[in-house]
Amino acid sequence: MSYAQVRSAVRPPPDAAMTQVADYVAQTDVGSREAFETARFMLLDSLACAALAMDHPECVKHLGPLVPGAELPGGARVPFTSHELDPAQAAYNIGTQIRWLDFNDTWLAAEWGHPSDNLGTILAVADYLGQQAMAQGRAPMTMRDVLGWAIKAHEIQGCYALKNAFNRVGLDHVILVRLASTAVATAMFGGSRDQVVTAISHSWIDNGALRAYRHAPNTGPRKSWAAGDACRRAVIHALNAIKGVVGYPSALTAPTWGFYDVAFDGKPFEFERDFGSYVMENVLFKISFPAEFHAQTAVECAMQLHPLVAPRIARDGVESIARIVIETQQAGLRIIDKTGPLANYADRDHCIQYMVAVPLLFGRLTAQDYTDAVAADPRIDLLRARTTVMENPRFTQEYFDPDKRYIGNSVQVFFNDGASTPKVSIDYPIGHRRRRAEAMPVLMKKFESAIASKLPEIQARTLMTLASSPGGFDAMPITQFMLLFKK
After folding, report:
1. Which residues of the chain have pLDDT under 70?
2. Which residue of 162, 173, 366, 436 could cross-link 109, Cys pair, CB 3.0 to 4.6 Å?
3. Cα distances (angstroms) measured from residue 184 to each of 8, 92, 123, 139, 200
4. In what helix (H) or strand (E) does residue 66 lie, and over which residues does it extend?
5. pLDDT at position 2, please?
6. Distance (Å, rounded) from C-alpha 47 to C-alpha 30?
């Protein structure tokens, strides 16, 4: 790179990685029936997660206007509350609700993430625009429209994640929530293709949040509101683009100052496939356990072993266990293999040893099992100390195989008297595409139980009827849908 190149003020054409996203958002019609069907379940599952999060005061304190009194009558509604807010703050609220318990959908590849995080932006913007449309005598968008935007947000985030490991350079995956939500929100506000490109350029110039809050020794609850923060920032970028702010065409490729050189080791992004509807069709659901997804099958293994292990512990004490061996994928080893004291809820739901010990002892793993009260049981840490975690190369290989996308784990328990349990291995969890038929009834039970505890009976019953009628669901205006979740 020469000094003359840096000094040149000639503005280049927009980076291809930005225009490809803009073209997809602005010009592509998604026609996949499977994608829309999966998107309905994804939306219901995400709102179930939001409902369950309302039981946690640490989540609730994030909700509401940025400053007291800054409500916006006729603004976007925040589910399970009475708040009506501007779309940026509503996006933060909804994104935080959905993500709080680490129980919403997941996408695992070179990068990890939770594409339904984008619903914070999509629901807030859709409801805000719908409220504005009704005030002006126009029809709001339908839920079919909302699902279409969600499919596109999933696709953008997930396709970037297939080959580009932001975690390898220390950046958190919510950078892709901000990217996808920025692109989709700009289009939802009526932005042109060029305005979408402008908004995306600002998203990349933001760089990204550090992953420090997801890893020892700093794991903390910011990981539960980081996606909401990305959703809020996306709305701001979209609104600024609509206002006509200047974009930055080589935000990625500019020598020295662009994202590639500053944050990505000088490497351009790689893509495995064109944008379509692949991600929504293959997304992973967290249905049975509120646990970091790389541990889902490990928890399922531990649940199967509970009847063999718990009686021995009850009879001979936890000291009767010599060791526990967990085999996992490389990604699981990097993210959730954790020793030493666990300081908080966020520490515990990102520790595979903890997430195996609890079901071995109790035959369950719920959100309450990450609280201080449960963690105070000394047997959990005794089991953690006896646990070895190692990579199984087959699990890693099948994790990256585009035709499989497995998330395998195995668990085996060895006792001091020389006996051992069988080695239980599970290649993919109930939320995997290959277990959809088994999973969807469980997902609907999760939704029904979650909303029943948070909404009046008539609203909950109406939602369950709606959920069983795809045609009625798709045709419902977003404003009516969000009203059903208003407290």
Report:
1. 1-6
2. 162
3. 33, 16, 11, 20, 10
4. none
5. 40
6. 23
* 147-150-155 Cα angle (round to 5): 130
| Helices 119-135/222-243 angle, 10° precision | 40
pLDDT tens column, 339-377: 999 999 999 999 999 999 999 999 999 999 999 999 999
* Beta strand ranges found along 257-336 (DSSP E): 321-328
Cα 64 to Cα 59: distance, rounded to the nearest angstrom: 11
Task: Identify the residue whose tokens are 């979740």.
Answer: 485
H-assigned helices in 189-295 = 193-205, 222-243, 259-263, 278-282
* Helix residue spans in 424-456 (DSSP H): 436-452
Q: How many CA atoms lie within 13 A of 137 on its CB side?
A: 0
* SS (HEC) of the chain: CCHHHHHCCCCCCCCHHHHHHHHHHHHCCCCCHHHHHHHHHHHHHHHHHHHHHCCCHHHHCCCCCCCCCCCCCCCEECCCCCCEECHHHHHHHHHHHHHCCCCCCEEECCCEECHHHHHHHHHHHHHHHHHHHHHCCCCCCEHHHHHHHHHHHHHHHHHHHHHCCHHHHCECCHHHHHHHHHHHHHHHCCCCHHHHHHHHHHHHHCCCCEHHHHCCCCCCCHHHHHHHHHHHHHHHHHHHHHHCCCCCCCCCCCCCCCHHHHHCCCCCCCCCCCCCCHHHHHCECCCCCCCCHHHHHHHHHHHHHHHHHHHHHHHHCHHHEEEEEEEECHHHHHHHCCCCCCCCHHHHCCCHHHHHHHHHHHCCCCHHHHCHHHHCCHHHHHHHHCEEEEECHHHHHHHHCCCCCCCCEEEEEEECCCCECCCEEECCCCCCHHHHHHHHHHHHHHHHHHHHCCCCHHHHHHHHHHHCCHHHHHHCEHHHHHHCCCC
CA distance 481 to 487: 13
Amino acid 395: pLDDT: 97
- What are the tokens at 195? 């305005």
> Whole-model pTM?
0.90
Gap between the Cα atoms of 50 and 71, Å rounded: 20
- Tell me the Ramachandran region of residue 297: left when phi exceeds 0, alpha when psi lies from -120 to 50, beta otherwise: alpha
Give the separation between CA 225 and CA 162, rounded to whole angstroms: 24
Contact 203, 160 (CB under 8 A): no
